[in-house]
Structures are given as C-alpha cells and as structure tokens.
Amino acid sequence: MSGAVLTTFVVLLGSLGLALASTPSSYSWVYTYPTGFSCDPLSIKQFGADPTGAKDVSGVLTSVNSISNFDASGIIHITAGTYLVAKSIALSKPVSLSAGAVLKIASGVTLTFNSPVAAPSSSQIFSGPGAVKFGFGVQASVYVEWFGAKGNGATDDTAAINAVLAAGDSSLNVMFQAKTYLTSGPLMVPSNAVVQAAPGAMVKGKSRLADAFVFQLPTAGGIYIGRQSLPALQNHRRAITFSDAGIIDVYSPSVSGCDEAVRVQSTRAKGAGRQISQVRVEVPKLDNVIKVVNFFDKNGGAVMQGSNFRFGTYTDSGSGTALISFQASGGGWAYWDSNDYHFDRVTPAASSSANKLVLLACDVSTTLYRQNLYISRLDPLPAGGRLTNANIQDCMMVVSASAALSAAQMALPVFRSGTVKSNNFNNFMLTAPAIAGLTASTSPNTRASFNGGLPLTSSLFTLALRANKPSRDPRTGKTPADGKTWPAGEARRFYFYHGLAQNQQLVYVTVPKIGATCQPSGVAITGIFDNSATVPYEVEVVAVACKPLVVADVKSGKVNISFPVLVGTVGTD
C-alpha cells in the first residue's frame, strides 16, 4: 500500500488511466485503465462517502483532505458514483476522478480546488447548479466535457461551456476536442480564460439568433492573456464579439453562416473607459457571412483604433452586404481610427440586383480615419457593389481585381458638414487586367472615344500619346496651327479618363521622370490636372516636345510616346 501512496501524482494518474490536462497542444493522450492493483488506491468511499448522491460528502472530502498521512503529494481519489457537495469547501490536495465519478454541487455552493484535478477528458465530473473554482495557477487546463458538454451536435452545451469559462481565478486553458458543440446563447469569455480548440472542433449555433464567443471586460482596465484559439464557428448571429475589450489575439479556422464574423462594440456609458485597441483577429476561411467586421458604438465617443484583422478567403452566397462596416446609435460618433484589414481573396456572389456588397461601408455620415483595406484578389463585384459608401480620410485601399470595376462601383461619396465640404486625403491602388492600346485623346470631353467610353479602373497602366494635331493652349485660349512637326518646347495637351477622377477629388498621377526631364520618347510630362469638376473622370496630361517630332511618325507609332502611369486619390473635395 505504501508504494501506491508514495507514487508521484503524474505517474499515479498514468497508472489510473486518467488525463491531467497540461498543454493546449496535447490532444492525443491514451490511457488503459488497469485491471487490478497490488492494493487499491484510497478513495473517498473508503471514508464513508455516499456514491448515490443522496448524502452530502463535503465533510468526508474535508476530512480526507486534512488526514495527516496525505502529505503534500497525496491524492484524493474519487471512484465511479455521484457525490453530493452541499457545503462550500476548498480542497488543497490533488484530486483524481475515475470515469463515471461526478461531483454534484448544490445551489449556492462553491467547490474550490487549490491543487490540480485529473479525470478522463470525455467524462463529466461536475454537475448541479453550484459553482466550481480553480485557485490561482493550480490547474493548467480543463475540458468542457468535465462540466457536462456532450459535443454531439444535438445537445445544447451552452450552460456547460459557460460554467467552464467562469471557473478560473487565473489563466485557465479551456479545452475543446474535435467535436461539434451546439449552443443557443453567448459564450462569455472572461479575461482569465484562454480558449484552446483541437483541429476539427466546431461550435454551431442552434439558431442564427444567438452570439458565439463574447470577450467582454465589465469595467475599465484589464487585458486578455494568451492567444484565444477558437473552434470553427457556424450559424451564429455574431461569431466573435469584442465588447469594450482590447489587447487580445483571437484565431478561428473558419466562420460560416453568420450575420457578423467579428463585432467590435462599445456599450459602456460615456467616461467608463471605452477604448478598444490592439485587437488582432485571424480567420483563414469565411463563408456566407453578411458582414465580416462590424464596428458598433452605442453611446458615442468610444475610441476603436489600432487593430488588425487578417482573413484568408471570403466567399459570399448572396447575403453579403459589407466586408467592413461601421454603425452607431445616438450620442455622437465613435473615433474609428487606424485599423488594418487583409483579405487573401474575396469572392462576391454572382451579380444580382439584390446583392450590393460594399467593401468599406458606413451607416452614418461621420468620417472614417486611417482605415486600410488590402485585398490580394477581388473576384468580380456584382453590379450593385462598390468600393465604399463612406466619407474617408487618410485611408488606403489596395485591391487587385480579377476584372475591371465600373465607374459606379468606384464612386466615392461626398459628405458635407453644413455647407462645408469635408476633406479627403486617401490612397487608392487598384489593379485590374491590363488594357492594351490605350491612347490619350487630343481633345477634351472625349470620353466616348476613349477606351470604348469606359473610365479606367486600374491604378497602373501604360498610356500612349498620338500627337496628330496640337491642342488648345489654355493660357491663350487659342489652338496653334497644325503643322507637320511638333516643335521642340511646345506644350500639347492630352486627355484620358479614370474612375478615381470624381467628386472634385485631386487625382495624383505618377509618371516616371515627370517634370522637365525628357523621356526616351522625346517628350517631358510637365503637368497633370484633374478636370473632373467640369468633366467627369477627365485627367489632363501636359507634354512638351524635347526635340522636333514629325507628327506623322508620332501618329503612326514610329515615335513611340508611351509611359507607365500610376493613379490614386490623395486630395480634397
């Protein structure tokens, strides 16, 4: 008998066929319950504990916990049966529970463990309306099954999961196995809990009316420790919610069939520490999500900034309305500032009048600052889709489109405060399939004859000049006489049409060696002007011949005046 008592806790657990949850990455422990012992391990039944659940065993547990021959490494062993705990107690010795052993905690009672607990990973070991607490730093991990979660995709596991999440006094790893857990209400994750899910784990909503994981700090201050590795999330109203909670890192392998994949919200009263920053989210796969990230401020004035969201693929089945969305309800607007969003690929639903996917959307007439959206591949937007409907400033949108966008999809709104127009300083970098043979027009207001009447939508393209006749000199209001040559030093004006030249926004156009330096083609590009205030989408290019050029040669292409152009918006409206 002494050999069993002196065996260390970890070794004894192995011999008993039990799991001591230790690290988030360990999901494959295999134990074989022994057929017999040279002597039976001491159990609370040997001290009179009732295994039927009819009589309170809190006194027995307290006695066994304090028996002198149970030294610091002694173990309280609980064999199969249901044991009623009707009084609040704290156990200082390690506890091991066999398969079928359940501690039933009465209402209003708290059972506290100040040493580790070990049990089979798929066994329920706690039941009843009372609470279970693990002391500071004593328990590395707990399984949601220990609190009654079934993970069979049919039984509602909401209460069991929330009981686990509330059980820790310090950083407690809450383990989800490779099962499907059905839930009907929010799963509230306190700052002292760390969710760890095995590959293949899923939390599925019983209906699409309830939230999944909610990270919420009830008062100002506090941070989340460790990376939250959530299960896959399916069929929820909101899959991941940050409610007045920041400084947190969350991962989920996928989100599907949800109204919102991520919600960042403030619901606290004004002056109650409402700054949500340094939120980091990574989700490799998104399917059938109405809004990917939705910001919401209930009372106005909250600060939501400095967060990073990284997504793999987003595939919409027709319900999607926005990749990134901003909402508020009363009390003024939030300070939405300095957030980054990355998508590997965005695949909108097929074009239909009902689908109006907006990449960056805002439901209120406030200004969004420094919202930076990067999309490595944007598949064709539906006809009703667009880049943004928001008033944005100091924002960046870098999008590589698989098909050219329309001018309507690129339309940038203009908001006013009273009679004063707001300023917009933004950077749009749009890449679309190359268009060959782009030649600038030699007369203004000639969009119909340029690129089939369609404004360009790609930021980078190559433009050619064909100087078949001189253009009007705006300084004199006259058109020079046509001649066989383009004299050295003469400025001629050419016109092209781009979707970003709109709403009187200044369009920046970068041409290599712009200025007085002559290009190999024999011209210098000395000026670029946005004419969209009077002619929609029109951009004017001023070129000066560095040497006499034969007009016929320029027109035929023997003198190839072509150069790459980079277009974006960086101005005021």
Topology summary:
Blueprint: H1 2-6, H2 9-16, E1 52-56, H3 58-66, E2 76-78, E3 81-85, E4 89-91, E5 95-97, E6 101-105, E7 110-113, E8 117-118, E9 126-127, E10 131-134, E11 141-143, E12 152-156, H4 158-165, E13 172-176, E14 180-183, E15 187-189, E16 193-197, E17 202-205, E18 213-216, E19 227-229, E20 232-234, E21 238-243, E22 248-251, E23 254-266, E24 275-277, E25 279-297, E26 303-305, E27 308-315, E28 322-328, E29 335-347, E30 358-362, E31 367-378, E32 386-388, E33 391-393, E34 396-401, E35 416-417, E36 420-421, E37 427-431, E38 460-464, E39 485-486, E40 491-497, E41 507-510, E42 523-530, E43 538-545, E44 549-550, H5 551-556, E45 562-569
Parallel strand pairs: 1-3, 2-5, 3-6, 4-7, 5-8, 6-9, 7-10, 11-13, 12-14, 13-16, 14-17, 15-18, 17-20, 18-21, 19-22, 20-23, 21-23, 22-25, 23-25, 24-26, 25-27, 25-28, 26-29, 27-29, 28-30, 29-31, 30-32, 31-33, 31-34, 34-37
Antiparallel strand pairs: 35-36, 38-45, 39-44, 40-43, 41-45, 42-43
Keywords: Signal
Signal peptide: 1-21
InterPro entries: Pectin_lyas_fold, Pectin_lyase_fold/virulence
